[in-house]
Amino acid sequence: xxxxxxxxxxxxxxxxxxxxxxxxxxxxxxxxxxxxxxxxxxxxxxxxxxxxxxxxxxxxxxxxxxxxxxxxxxxxxxxxxxxxxxxxxxxxxxxxxxxxxxxxxxxxxxxxxxxxxxxxxxxxxxxxxxxxxxxxxxxxxxxxxxxxxxxxxxxxxxxxxxxxxxxxxxxxxxxxxxxxxxxxxxxxxxxxxxxxxxxxxxxxxxxxxxxxxxxxxxxxxxxxxxxxxxxxxxxxxxxxxxxxxxxxxxxxxxxxxxxxxxxxxxxxxxxxxxxxxxxxxxxxxxxxxxxxxxxxxxxxxxxxxxxxxxxxxxxxxxxxxxxxxxxxxxxxxxxxxxxxxxxxxxxxxxxxxxxxxxxxxxxxxxxxxxxxxxxxxxxxxxxxxxxxxxxxxxxxxxxxxxxxxxxxxxxxxxxxxxxxxxxxxxxxxxxxxxxxxxxxxxxxxxxxxxxxxxxxxxxxxxxxxxxxxxxxxxxxxxxxxxxxxxxxxxxxxxxxxxxxxxxxxxxxxxxxxxxxxxxxxxxxxxxxxxxxxxxxxxxxxxxxxxxxxxxxxxxxxxxxxxxxxxxxxxxxxxxxxxxxxxxxxxxxxxxxxxxxxxxxxxxxxxxxxxxxx
Length: 613
Known about the structure:
Blueprint: H1 3-17, H2 23-39, H3 45-54, H4 57-67, H5 78-92, E1 98-103, H6 109-122, E2 129-135, H7 138-146, E3 148-150, H8 158-161, E4 166-169, E5 172-175, H9 177-180, E6 183-187, E7 201-203, H10 213-226, E8 232-234, E9 248-253, E10 256-261, E11 280-285, H11 289-300, E12 305-311, H12 317-324, E13 328-332, E14 348-349, E15 368-372, H13 385-397, E16 419-425, H14 429-439, E17 446-452, H15 459-469, E18 473-476, E19 487-490, E20 496-499, E21 505-508, H16 520-529, E22 536-540, H17 549-557, E23 561-565, H18 574-581, E24 587-589, H19 594-604, H20 606-612
Parallel strand pairs: 1-2, 1-7, 2-6, 7-8, 11-12, 11-13, 13-15, 16-17, 16-22, 17-19, 18-19, 22-23, 23-24
Antiparallel strand pairs: 3-5, 4-5, 8-10, 9-10, 14-15, 20-21
């Protein structure tokens, strides 16, 4: 297949979908072109490509539809449906039918799941509802309208949650007729338009991650306009909004993150004087993962203090204050260059050092800012009551300076790592990785390196989401990072990460021959070459291709413990099957069982576990 012809077609098709043209997407385009060429009766893909470049827009639209990734199943991410059940009675009080949108509905499993949840919550209240599913893929919508699904569409707990609303017919399960009547489907490209609103609930999950930043911003802006005040937007658990529109407020409900349209302009943060008897809420700001870990533990151990949230830079303070209404900003001086000198020896009151322009500046009125010295000294763990006393002093004095400190603090001693967990994944991986990290205990002496096939503009937000949802400190890897316990490093998109002797990381641009980027094999092989295999556990999860198989083989031969997700539950089993074919996998487990197996390995020792397997 001539690369120049494939590129010419891709450059015409990708903008229609708003897709970010990653290496994996180019590979998918090549496979789709081969399939479409056979279906259209062409002898070779080259002839089909030339035909596409001459043909009208409709042929390119058909190719674009075939490129969509229709990965879905019933009641995927159950916490979102737990939150939905709590929201629906509240939204029903506004009168009229409750309208729900499934944006990027694929073959309809999500739309019918929404209808089932709405029927259970609203029918006892006598409230009507309707669900609209929209997608660009015409063939997927035809399957959705049939309401006939095989067992695979109900994997995990889907069949349990749908009980009473489906009936078995041979190898298929059929959606109950009264539910199908409440669900309608329309072909629509969200990059170009949105359906007619309003909608009380919008589910747009695992769609935004494939879009360019510009298209993602435009789609979100359209969806926000569909929501009435109080309406809710759900995105995938592996997704995040780079800069949420000011109309949206991020909230947590039933353990799930979602966004709600504000009823009115957000009020300024409540002064501690108006909340007497309640804990002081502290917003922790530090660019250092290790500093955040230690200060998080210090704050949680003190009565009368509550960790309201965390930020990595002063630039993030305004958004976090809006979300949390924190009383105190606790700022690591090293994080803000303006404080690098002033904060070295003493605690300081430094509101002017936080440069917040426009409306954001008002958020600091009544909010104390306490600046910590940098981490040159030896430990922050001993602060305890002294930190609590200084926070209370700043809160009580409002905008007046806090007293000077009593001398330099001892610097932070970074926790050492004992074992290294390596995770490689591709298509479908973000959701699985998120769940594994969420359930993985801390305190195991684990450093974690994640290599996820993902575009450059997604890995930072992926790391941020993992940081919020897990007990681990998570960040994008950077050259020079030294592995630390209870810390997770995500390989940046369009780069590779390798591990050197002693656990020092190196991030570099891909080599010319790298088909997959970030490259799992390069990370795994570097651990073997560094002599760290006997301290490592390597896991291969869902994904297309064969990346990770060679590295897994070398690691296993060098003494590493190796696991793979059960291929029967993987979104795409290619990477797992490639590793199995090489004999590199010592144990195959469902994703739900992987966190406990990692914990057993870390606690009991690799050799004992290998003997049990």
